[in-house]
Structure prediction request, 370 residues.
Amino acid sequence: MDSPIATFVGGLNGRWRIDSISAPVGSTLREAPRLDIVAGQLAEPPVGSAWLLRGAASNLRYTSRSERAGLAAAQAPLGRAEATRAALIPIRKSGDWWALAQDERRAIFEEQSAHIAVGQRYLPAIARQLRHCRDLGEPFDFLTWFEYAPESEPAFEELLAALRGSAEWRFVDREVDIRLSLDAR
Amino acid sequence: MDSPIATFVGGLNGRWRIDSISAPVGSTLREAPRLDIVAGQLAEPPVGSAWLLRGAASNLRYTSRSERAGLAAAQAPLGRAEATRAALIPIRKSGDWWALAQDERRAIFEEQSAHIAVGQRYLPAIARQLRHCRDLGEPFDFLTWFEYAPESEPAFEELLAALRGSAEWRFVDREVDIRLSLDAR
Prediction:
């Protein structure tokens, strides 16, 4: 069985150059020059790695059938040739968030914060992949990977500002913002 | 940070005696005399272990605020002196289940199958703890642990029969049923 887990390694190797690491909320991660994305888990951290973050691709947790259809009709895949910029945004939510029941979290996530609707506005320019890591005992709960062309960077900043201003984000107690780019070919 | 993961070890040691292992759906697990429940993950399988199953205690995925309040008012804790019988039921659901959106899974889980309402009928006699393992890359998706007094065994069989007859269970493609008891003190 293939593992649903991928490991993001901040270190000396990898296709993506790390341009900046900042921490909008809580403690940051150590600086590193490159990011490598490895399928599965690693028995040992690679030589020179500053941090390893693991996350699992998983089922939808809040998205309804009709919302999913809307996203599927609009979204672009990862790996487009023009998408030479990326962001990896690890976040952790507070114990108060996780203690809420499913209907309470859904109401904050979409009816109050429009998380899905906001993301939809920036499709197909901003491609996105979510991985879950709370159940893995990781320091973060989610790792979200975004990919976009350089000219979509202002749109990406708008998307982040909308999410960070939402009711949902009041439950975020750690957020790191890692910006990346591909070397010119 | 404490790991949310526990490891269930079928082998030579542990407080619980394994009385039987059967497989209502799909392939079974190897026979073993004892079950040990260990906090966290193990670097190496203990000597003589037949299988290790890992699962993470996690947030609610379907239960609403009012359903949770009903459960909380009725349920008993694990570890009651009279609860000398237990069952560990690992299940896996099909790809069709996991491809459903959240509202579709919720509708099958509760509106069609009454999973929460059925469990509630057997409280406080049958205490229960769910762990999730699909995101861990495990062979099962869930490990459910049930504890009850010997006189509640018929009630426990009723509960299982109700769940196994539900619409939700049509998506279960592997289920193992491990029955356990505590040695008399």
Q: What stands out?
A: Chain B is about 25% helix and 35% strand. Residues 153-164 of chain B form the longest helix (12 residues). The interface with chain A takes residues 1-5, 40-41, 56, 58-65, 67-68, 98-106, 132, 134-137, 139 of chain B (CB under 8 Å).
